[in-house]
Structures are given as C-alpha cells and as structure tokens.
Design brief:
flat; 151 residues; 68% helix; single chain
Length: 151
C-alpha cells in the first residue's frame, strides 16, 4: 500500500533533523536576493534594450504612429492631476458636508474644476464625513457602555 510507504518516508526525513514547525533555513534568504530567472531576464533585456529602442525610434521617425505614441508616452507621461484651489466651508460635522459638496458642484458648474477634479474633491469630503461619523459612533458607544456599567 502507498500510504504506509509515504509515512515511513516522512518519518525518515524527520529523523534526519527536520522538526515540525522548524524551518530548514532559519536565517532565510539574505535581503536583496533575487530570483535567478528574473536576474537572467534582466540580463537579456539589458543586452537587447538598445536595439529595441533604436528600432522603435526609427519606426516612429518613419511615420509609425504606434511607435511614436509609445516614445511620446515615455517622454511625457500623462498628467495625473493638478493642485486646485477651492474655498470650502469648514466641515466639522457630517451635516457640514452638504454645504461643502454644494461648493464643489458650483465650482464644476462654473468651470473652475473639471468633473474629474470635482469628483476627487468630493471623494475627500466623503472620506472626511466617514471619519467624523466613525468618531461620533465611538463617542456614543463609549457613553452607552459607561451608562450600562453604572447600572
């Protein structure tokens, strides 16, 4: 039967110093150790990178729009966002988020903010609202627990 043979093999391995829950290499891999396959891929990529770059640049100069787009994306990455100035009312309660969100809607409507920027600012306001509500719930829970403890 196969199972007793497997158990016997496992017992032999444990008798040679392997203990359950104990690593065979207690120090582990040294920091910075890289997978051998990735090291080899990096070496191959470094060797061919110049030739590939030259081929893409030549194709772009000869009118290949895909190659030109690839080169331009690497030279000038897409803008991720910009800093915006927006005067918002103070938000100290969850109810205050209504007036703050109204200010964002007005800024988008006036063209001072793009719809994407307005959405990002509204997301920050909503995160602040959730933080306020979480804090309010914690305070209320603490008060209930103290009241229940006094009884």
């Amino acid at each position: 039967m196969v199972i007793p043979a497997m158990l016997e093999n496992a017992a032999k391995k444990q008798s040679h110093g392997f203990q359950p829950g104990q690593s065979g290499n207690p120090r582990g891999k040294p920091p910075g150790t890289r997978n051998k396959a990735l090291v080899e891929l990096d070496r191959l990529g470094a060797e061919g990178a110049q030739a590939v770059l030259r081929a893409v640049l030549t194709a772009a100069q000869n009118g290949d729009i895909s190659a030109a787009a690839l080169v331009l994306k690497r030279c000038w990455p897409e803008a991720k966002g910009r800093s915006v100035r927006l005067v918002l009312p103070p938000v100290t309660t969850a109810a205050d988020t209504i007036t703050a969100t109204a200010a964002v809607v007005a800024a988008v409507a006036d063209g001072n903010l793009s719809p994407e920027e307005g959405q990002a600012v509204a997301g920050v306001i909503d995160a602040h609202r959730r933080a306020i509500e979480t804090n309010e719930l914690a305070v209320r829970l603490e008060a209930l627990e103290q009241a229940a403890g006094r009884r």
